[in-house]
Amino acid sequence: MSSQIELRHLTYFLAVAEELHFRKAAEKLFISQPGLSRQIKQMETILQVDLFVRDKKKVSLTPAGHYLRNRAEDIFKQLKETKRQLQLIGDGDTGEIRIGFLGSAMQEVIPDLLLGLKDKFPKIKTSLLELSNQNQVDAVLKDELDMGFVRLGRVPAALNMKTVFEDTFSLVLPESYPMLTREYDGMERFADDNFILFSQDYSPYYYETIMSICSDAGFVPKVSHKSVHAQTIFKLVENNLGIAIVPTALQYGFQMRVKFVELKDIRQRALLSVIWKKENRNPVLQNCIDLLFDS
């Protein structure tokens, strides 16, 4: 009997961990149930720990089993990613970078990064996925993304985070709002207006920042609508359903009947940061980080 854990052990273990039923797992693996049971028992003997609680009614994972399931899934993700990168290298490419982003990052940072990659590393492939802040954090932690562009105050210790762009905020008003842009004299005059904000779940750091802008002006905003899309927010403002505060860069690329008032004199700034996992071994990642901060 082998005294080492092999990939087949992990494959068998994950099948049972997912099904929590030895017969169903054996059918999924196209092996006999007694054979599967022997493999799991062998694994437990090698590791000197019980991975499953077995009784006549059900099978469940022990605490050690739960831990191993997470680690085994990570191992197979890493193997899958390694195979993918090797295939790219074999095709004459130097690799791939998977990037998550908020919509506002597409206005300033990501186009410059993509152009820089195309110029200096033309064989690097890029894939982009627009996600919320928290979904990006989760995906980077799970090695489903190599890097993300977020608006967060802090991230888990396993991640690096560095500011890449500092923007002002702008007030968004309907074109028909009874105030000219040059007449703006402070946020206090908007205390009675309804506000349309990005959802707190989508971007809690942004949400709290907007709350602090209004708090500094002496009021708590009346939030009438929330959305995860800038275009939706602008459309609601356009239809006189409220006003909004957004990062200034978001005003570009939308043709709507709204007007923007840049809030230059407030202390708050819209910070866009890049995040990446400290243990990420994708060789392309460092080239991207260098491009972001060398320019």
From TrEMBL:
PROSITE patterns documented for this protein: HTH_LYSR (PS50931)
SUPFAM superfamilies in alphabetical order: Periplasmic binding protein-like II, Winged helix' DNA-binding domain
Alphabetized UniProt keyword annotations: DNA-binding, Transcription, Transcription regulation
GO terms of molecular function: DNA binding; DNA-binding transcription factor activity
A single cellular component GO annotation: protein-DNA complex
Similarity field: Belongs to the LysR transcriptional regulatory family.
Protein name: Transcriptional regulator
Species annotation: Maribacter cobaltidurans
